[in-house]
Amino acid sequence: METATIASQPASTESNSLPADDVAAIDALGKSYEAFKSEIAKTIIGQEIVVEQLAICLFARGHALLMGVPGLAKTLLVSSVAQTLELSFNRIQFTPDLMPSDITGTDIIQENEQGQREFKFIKGPIFSNLLLADEINRAPAKTQAAMLEAMQERHVTALGTKYDLDPPFFVLATQNPVEQEGTYPLPEAQLDRFMFLINVDYPTAEEEKRIARETTGAAKSALNTVLTGKQVIEYQDLVRRVPVPDHIYDYAVEIVRKTRPDLDSTPDWVKQNVSWGAGPRAVQYLILGAKARAALHGKYMASMEDIEAVAEPVLGHRVLTNFAAESQGMTSNKVVARLVQEMR
Predict the structure, then answer these.
(1) Counting CB atoms within 10 angstroms of each CB, which of 28, 102, 244, 277 has the fewest?
(2) Residues in the chain with pLDDT < 70?
(3) What does pTM read for this prediction?
(4) Which residues of 233-253 are buried (b: 16+ CB within 10 A; e: fewer)?
(5) Are 153 and 210 within one domain?
(6) Which CATH number is 305's domain given?
(7) Which of 277, 290, 299, 279 is nearest to 251 (CA)?
């Protein structure tokens, strides 16, 4: 097959060239991404970094957890994403009385044509391409854990029978800060299933003025569909084929290992402030995130800029700080930001 050589990229033992079809596909993905952002901007004012991080998760075949105080349009953002994609969409409002079977589905007894009683599985709302888990931390751990198998293995097991989820499967969860009354911290095992923890912050003064002006008038028309499910799957496969130089792999491994306080190579200040570091899944998501970001920006190889851009959303919820760090205002994100700065 004809190939196109990628210029102005670092040398690597991995191939520095992509098939011409993949080069064209990356160009097409970049255009689709611009159209995607334009549609989202019709309902969401500002939050460009949040939208980019959501897109990275989508095309890297990961899940995203959006965290922010109420009223920052987290739910509206996810529903807007659903409108731009030709995918099945379900929303679950998490509440303290929600049961696991309300998410995954349950077996019921009914009569068949012969008059005999038999079990029939009724699928829950998790059987969709795009699932919005709204205020996920308002349900207890038992209910939250019902999603672990689906998020990792892409299937649900009920009474010993496995039911596959149709691809693509993408969970977008929203979470209020744990300091809010009536919320439950997510178990670490479930946090690790999310590729990104995306912090949704307050808008700027100018953006807030636009929100007041543009959302208090006449209703806006529905968003246009940008991508089909088949195209999303094709672009997810494309992202996996984006080349990564060796020094990017080295960087991903090194920064993750520096978050682990029990290693001799870990900086002293990390040992003093961190009680638990990131695991191997963080390395995988750093690489996949860098690949996806490169492709979305029309680049044919992942760069240092790409992996630095995804370091905080990948590692922020996988680094657990101790009491000493909390007393000094040293958050997990600040730990990651300082590591990125020191490794430049």
Answers:
(1) 28
(2) 1-16, 178-181
(3) 0.87
(4) eebbebbeebbbbeebbebbe
(5) yes
(6) 1.10.8.80
(7) 290
